[in-house]
Design brief:
elongated, seven-stranded mixed beta sheet, 10 helices, 327 residues, alpha/beta, binds 6-O-phosphono-beta-D-fructofuranose
Length: 327
């Protein structure tokens, strides 16, 4: 078989480990992998090259994606879908393995409805692809953000400051909740729960009245804060709390640091497992599916799960956050 592989949307740690697993599997079964550059854009432009084992040497532990990535939805560009179909024919492909978040996989779903055989793998530090339990890149982003929050916390302690840390997460608070809980943050501002700055300021003041001299507030970039007037969620919370409490306050925006760097072992294992599972699905003709994997287990779910929109943070996790933090 000739199988096209692409990575689309925002990058994350672990993409290369998935690509490596796919190439090694193909080598075992005598299949050929065509790696397309810059996601669906590269497919539409016919920009791809054969990937061999040599291309995968040493990439397991590297961040980013050797295939590069782009935000490109064929159906949103005139002639985009036809260009993808033409590449599929011209390259004599039998299937695609598509590694992406909801945007890239949403485009994959539309193509599969046009008859393109494909299997999806979920990746995103937002951790919110419906139908899956885990997304490649999330564990590393949690580890990176939690370590950064730990560091912010110690300097905050030294200066008796209120420290606000903004993490990624436009529509979902997975990263804010998990990194915040792992780092022992005192308060969380999430997209899932409307933020009441008056209540938050009161709770922080109470902590300080009972002996604490410093607090850490973790804010998801998509926190529910009402009108933003172009300001970041972190700056609204930092300014709002400083005004209300009078505490010396500092803001740290973690930004793309959370998407870069080497994947931690659990992401390497998850990505390897996803790559193997996707290739097994391709070999058995289980198309229009999405890999739902863990370190050791795999399942295939219908790809149309991605049409459900972001996978919400479960009530159980929010309940833990309610016990341990203020929101
Ligand atoms: O990968 C998802 C995500 O990290 C979001 O949480 C964030 O809003 C977005 O990507 C930023 O993407 P970029 O700046 O690369 O367009």
């Amino acid at each position: 078989m000739r199988i096209g592989v692409l990575t689309g949307g925002g990058d994350c740690p672990g993409l290369n480990a998935a690509i490596r697993a796919i190439v090694l599997c193909a080598q075992n079964s005598g299949d050929q992998i065509v790696g397309f550059h810059h996601g669906w854009r590269g497919v539409a432009q016919g920009d791809g090259a054969i990937l061999s084992e040599a291309d995968t040497k040493g990439i397991m532990q590297t961040g980013g994606t050797i295939l590069r990535t782009a935000l490109f939805h064929p159906d949103k560009h005139e002639g985009g879908t036809e260009a993808v179909l033409a590449t599929f024919e011209r390259e004599r492909l039998d299937a695609f393995v598509v590694i992406g978040g909801d945007g890239t996989l949403g485009a994959a779903l539309k193509l599969s409805q046009r008859g393109v055989p494909l299997v999806g793998i979920a990746k995103t530090i937002d951790h919110d692809v419906s139908g899956t339990h885990r997304c490649i890149g999330f564990d590393t982003a949690v580890a990176t953000a939690a370590e950064a929050i730990d560091r912010v916390q110690t300097t905050g302690e030294s200066h008796d400051r209120l420290m606000v840390v903004e993490v990624m997460g436009r529509t979902s608070g997975w990263l804010a909740v998990c990194a915040g809980l792992a780092a022992g943050a005192n308060a969380l501002c999430l997209p899932e729960i409307p933020v009441d700055l008056d209540r938050l300021a009161k709770a922080i003041a109470q902590r300080h009245d009972s002996g604490s001299t410093s607090s850490v507030v973790v804010v998801a970039e998509g926190a529910q804060l009402g009108q933003s007037n172009g300001r970041s969620a972190g700056s609204i919370v930092a300014d709002g709390l400083q005004k209300r409490t009078g505490y010396d306050t500092r803001l740290t925006v973690l930004g793309h640091i959370q998407r870069g760097g080497p994947p931690i072992p659990s992401d390497r294992l998850l990505a390897s497992n996803c790559g193997v599972a996707a290739m097994q699905a391709v070999r058995s003709g289980a198309f229009a599916t999405l890999v739902d994997a863990d370190d050791t287990t795999t399942d295939l779910v219908p790809l149309n799960f991605v049409a459900l929109g972001p996978r919400p943070v479960p009530a159980e996790l929010l309940a833990i956050a309610r016990e341990l933090t203020v929101q």
